């Protein structure tokens, strides 16, 4: 099919619409002036102000801890869910199980947050960093499960069967054969879960409590009073963290895929 001359233009306009506001935000984080719409010269003072703001730093530390914990737990649970759906075939309750895994993908965040809030209130669990972590784990798990499941569907199980025929136990086969081969998908799922947890606002606002304010909630509460270059500095650092994570995950995945192809070619030649 012949491509239209308008395709590059539409693509360029689409990327410009998405990324120009982000570029402007980063540029104005180095603004000397307190007015975010007036350029007063290059300065790093808002980054220094940010580091000295105890409220922002406390919220940032809570957010990073929650993101690390929820991404790790969610990825582990998502991997188990993906293995269950791919390896166990049809079993009683499969439809219900898969529906519960995929539900957070289509369910509005307001409903998810309110449901978790009612659950925590019903069981008498005080809202703190643990409740936010549990809430984030529930919706990040499904994203990790989908990424890992897509890799398992194309996985060559003859490699596992060969290892078990040679006397390798199933558990050791998983850690020696299966996990290294699906590790790029696991890392991708973890990065996706970490990113989703890092910038979540709605669910965290329902499940957080005193002393467990996340950075998105802190930023939102301050933005309602007016945007300052200090907020731009915080958002720029978040953008840098997410970008760095995506780049590292992409490079790692590409290197492992190339190594896998080299190993397969070496095995064929051997």
Give descriptors for this structure.
77% helix; 0% strand; 11 helices; MetI-like fold; mainly alpha
Please give a quick description of this structure.
The protein contains eleven helices and no strands. With 270 residues, it is mainly α. It has one domain (52-269): MetI-like fold (Orthogonal Bundle).
Write the layout of secondary structure elements.
Elements lengths: L5 H23 L16 H8 L1 H34 L6 H13 L2 H14 L6 H24 L5 H8 L4 H29 L3 H6 L7 H9 L5 H41 L1
Structure, explained:
There is one protein chain. The protein has about 270 residues and is mainly alpha-helical. It has one domain (about 50-270): MetI-like fold (Orthogonal Bundle), CATH 1.10.3720. The chain has 11 helices and no strands. It has helices at about 5-30, 45-50, 55-85, 95-105, 110-120, 130-150, 160-165, 170-200, 200-205, 215-225, 230-270. Helix 3 crosses helix 10. It is globular and about 70 Å long. The mean pLDDT is about 85.
Determine the CATH topology.
MetI-like fold
Number of domains: 1
Overall CATH architecture? Orthogonal Bundle
Shape, per Cα inertia axes: globular
The value of Rg in angstroms is 23 Å
Q: Any idea of the CATH class? A: Mainly Alpha
C-alpha end-to-end distance:
42 Å
Class computed from helices, strands and strand pairing: mainly alpha
Largest sheet data:
none
- The total beta strand count reads 0
CATH superfamily: MetI-like
Helix content: over 70%
Average residue-wise pLDDT: 83
Helix tally? 11
Oligomeric state as shown: single chain
Query: Percent of residues in beta strands?
Result: under 5%
Order of helices and strands: HHHHHHHHHHH
Report low-confidence residues grouped into runs of 5 or more. none
